[in-house]
Amino acid sequence: MNTLVAEARHSLAAAWHLARGDRSAYGLMNLSEDGFWRSFVAILPVLPLYLYSTDVGQRLDTAGGSESPSTLLTVLSLLIQWVAWPILIAAIGRPLGWGANFVRYMVAFNWSSVYVIGVMLPPLMLFDAGVIGRDAMGILGLVSMAAALWIRWIVAVTGLQVSGMVAAALVLGELLLSLGTDAVIG
């Protein structure tokens, strides 16, 4: 079996365990420099899910009143987020004493992104299929957003080994980067 595929399987399983609070899951991840770079492969399963969620979200927001951003702009937005966040964390991490945990955090962050987008999909899919309406989508969307933010928080606390408050600030920062990038690009 391809080593990258095997690594992806192990890392995705580890990210699942980590999202459930199992800190020992880091032992299943490749936390080397190569593992850091290879973790960016997680964008491959994230990208189509991100494109779908952006499309449905845009249709939900506009009720068909305006055009969705082009696929190219949506991909560009995601790529900027995937490049900017590690750079930002590396820049602030060293002075704040997180440098030793940077690779650990980013590997877990990247692989857990599959689950972050995954927990946000069910309400969007139900809305897109016409099973639920706009109001139910709003409520379920908040629940799924809370689950996604929880995963990000767990990864920040355990990956960077920071306090819950610092992790919450990082989660908020990453959310603002995402929303800001989408607003500027889209």
- The N- and C-terminal alpha carbons lie at a distance of 39 Å
User: What Rg is obtained from the alpha carbons, in whole angstroms?
Assistant: 17 Å
Backbone structural class: mainly alpha
Question: What characterizes the major β-sheet?
Answer: none
Strand segment tally: 0
Report the order of strands and helices.
HHHHHHH
Determine the mean pLDDT. Answer: 92
Domain count: 1
User: Considering DSSP H and I runs of 4 or more, what fraction of the residues is helical?
Assistant: over 70%
Task: Give me the number of helical elements.
Answer: 7
Which residues sit in consecutive blocks of at least 5 with pLDDT less than 50? none
Strand residue content: under 5%
What overall geometry do the principal axes of the alpha carbons give?
globular
Reconstruct the topology from this structure.
Layout: H1 3-19, H2 33-38, H3 43-62, H4 71-93, H5 102-128, H6 134-160, H7 164-185
Helix pairs in contact: 1-5, 3-4, 3-5, 4-7, 5-6, 6-7
Brief sketch in words of this structure:
By secondary structure, this protein is mainly alpha-helical. The chain is 76% helix and 0% strand.
What does this structure look like?
The protein is an all-alpha fold. The chain has one domain. Helices cover 76% and strands 0% of the residues. The chain is built from seven helices and no strands. The chain has helices at residues 3-19, 33-38, 43-62, 71-93, 102-128, 134-160, 164-185. Helix 3 packs across helix 5 (102-128), helix 5 runs antiparallel to helix 6 and helix 6 packs across helix 7. The longest helix is centred in the middle third of the chain and has 27 residues, at 102-128. It is globular and about 45 Å long.
